[in-house]
């Protein structure tokens, strides 16, 4: 990946671009609650904890209604797209999460990582605490 930030409006990897980052792919497929929790915490800039978001996702995943966890993760895909001006590709957010949830989670994880907001970076909120304005 280049040193320049990706242009707004285009995803850095495709929905099925798992081979560009096998770690995010494995995390999304085998530990989706962890992958989602890290994405949610990153998108919410620490206001939502990884553990809380992951636990909610896990409960919704195992609630017996397959759409609940997809709806929850889809809302974060919308946040990600709004933050970086990304298009709804390859189809609407709901369809992406319903038909290919692990790929969607992996793509969101890669997108944040490729744009410099690595979801796995545990130190990101500790370093920013002194510079963040928590007023709103």
Description:
With about 140 residues, the chain is mostly helical. About 55% of the residues lie in helices and about 0% in strands. The longest helix has 18 residues, at about 65-85. Helix 1 runs antiparallel to helix 6 (about 100-115), helix 4 (about 65-85) packs across helix 5 and helix 5 crosses helix 6 (about 100-115). The chain is globular and about 40 Å long.
**Strand residue percentage:** under 5%
User: On the 0-100 scale, what is the average pLDDT?
Assistant: 85
Distinct helical segment count = 7
Tell how many strands the DSSP assignment holds: 0
Question: How would you summarize what this structure contains?
Answer:
With 136 residues, the protein is mainly α.
Secondary structure blueprint with pairings:
Elements: H1 22-30, H2 32-43, H3 50-61, H4 67-84, H5 93-99, H6 101-114, H7 124-128
Helix pairs in contact: 1-2, 1-6, 2-3, 2-4, 2-6, 3-4, 4-5, 4-6, 5-6
Name a few traits of the molecule.
136 residues; mainly alpha; 7 helices; 57% helix; membrane
């Amino acid at each position: 990946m280049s040193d320049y930030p990706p242009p707004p409006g285009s995803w850095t990897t495709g929905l099925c671009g798992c081979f560009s980052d096998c770690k995010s792919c494995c995390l999304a497929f085998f530990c989706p609650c962890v992958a989602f929790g890290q994405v949610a915490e990153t998108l919410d800039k620490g206001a939502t904890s990884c553990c809380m978001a992951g636990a909610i996702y896990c409960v919704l995943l195992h609630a017996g209604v397959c759409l609940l966890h997809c709806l929850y993760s889809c809302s974060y895909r919308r946040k990600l797209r709004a933050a970086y001006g990304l298009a709804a590709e390859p189809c609407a957010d709901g369809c992406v999460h319903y038909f290919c949830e692990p790929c969607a989670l992996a793509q969101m994880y890669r997108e944040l990582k490729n744009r410099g907001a690595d979801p796995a970076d545990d130190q990101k909120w500790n370093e920013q605490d002194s510079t963040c304005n928590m007023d709103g």
